[in-house]
Amino acid sequence: MLFRVSSASLRGRTFLLICGLTVLVLVGIAGMHSFDYGYFAPTSGSTSGSSVGVNVPPARSSFDSYLQKLHRNMHWEDLQAYCSQDKFSPEFVKSVERRYTNITHGGMEPVFVAINLYNNEKVLPNMATQLLALADTLGHSRIFISIYENGSEDRTKEILHRFNETLNALNIAHRIVTDPTPKPKRVHRIEYLAKVRNSAMEPLYSSGEKYGRVAFINDVHFCLTDVLELLFQSRAQGAHLTCAEDFVEWNGGPGFYDTWVARDIKGKMFEKEMHKITKDDISMAAQVRDRPFQVQCGWNGMVIIDAKVFRGEGGLRFRRSAKGECSASECSLFCNDLWRKKFNRIVMVPRVKLAYDTAIRDMLRKPINFPADIPYNPPEVEKISFRSGPETVFCRPLKNPITDIQDDPDEWVKL
To answer: Which segment of the chain is annotated as a signal peptide (predicted)?
Structure first.
């Protein structure tokens, strides 16, 4: 399927065609050597606005055809993005266009996209498609895509090789690194995850460019509008970190996944049940109405981070716990560091619900789980009244380097 981007980017049905492309899975041979494709910066003739014209670039057509051909040969599962055109009315299309105008027409600072991958051949085709749509929407010169992959034994490296070629041809700034080295068995899980996250972030750490926001995306099924809504809320709420909600199968339906990291504004763990996700009354009132609310911490598959938290002396980095500190996730520690530096506007956005497999992805699109007031009503932002937050936060430590199961008593950590 070839796709087009209109001269006004998010115009009518073309916008949903981008987001609703059939997502197809590839086949290839994983590389045997570490390969850094290097930094690619756009040339002086790169696209600066949100329009890339009405004609499909040859590189884009070739990449899309490649996906389709390999999908037909392998007969793998159809991974069509869940926000396809037939799901929504023209009224929805217009409301989306109105909502994101300030993002898609040059109003958003350049965005740095960071991704870690490992054996992700089933989510990567959709991810690549939506990232290309995001680049079209923001403008090719207003995005940097950084991907660090290592240890994959499936077709992830092959897909990334083709994606790198496509980004080169489309003049989209990026850095893609593929590394055959898996996680060493005796290295602590959190130490390792912090390292690979920092590897994905390295171009931002070393660059003099001042990106406005970082979009860190996990191995989830997502759509263009999911990224746009998080960017929208990040900007509208003046948030330092803005996160989605992620779900897996639980009791026959979607259950909230990232309970190890996510903490409500009182520092307590979230619950698995979507409609009883927190015991904080203010947060729960927002959750049932699919409105954003303040939390102490969240990651949940996708986050938008204000890039200023990484800058200057003492700029934040992902890390493992220090001696005597509760051995929490690198994402939990990142949130705690945000609070200690007074970057405490952390927001969870229930409208953006993500999944790690297609079955839960499709469940999340059912009316009982999808926001009932789509199209957006009211279209303006409901501002969060930010609270001072907790003095302590609940921690479930992970100290053993060869397990991902809690192995020490729970504790409350002082912020």
So the answer is: none
Q: How does pLDDT run across 277-315, given as a tens digit for each residue?
A: 999 999 999 999 999 999 999 999 999 999 999 999 999
Q: What is the pTM of this model?
A: 0.86
Q: How far apart are CA 257 and CA 260, in angstroms?
A: 8
Pairing of the two strands 111-117 and 213-217: parallel
Q: Both tokens of residue 219?
A: 């191995």
| Rg of the chain taking only CA atoms, in angstroms | 20
**pLDDT tens-digit map of 358-380:** 889 888 877 777 776 666 666 67
Angle between helices 12-19 and 224-237 (to 10 degrees): 110
CA separation for the pair 50, 350 (Å, rounded): 27
Could you give the C-alpha distances from 205 to 13, 17, 74, 141, 358, in angstroms and in order?
Answer: 38, 35, 40, 19, 34
User: Is the C-alpha dihedral spanning 51, 54, 58, 64 positive or negative?
Assistant: positive
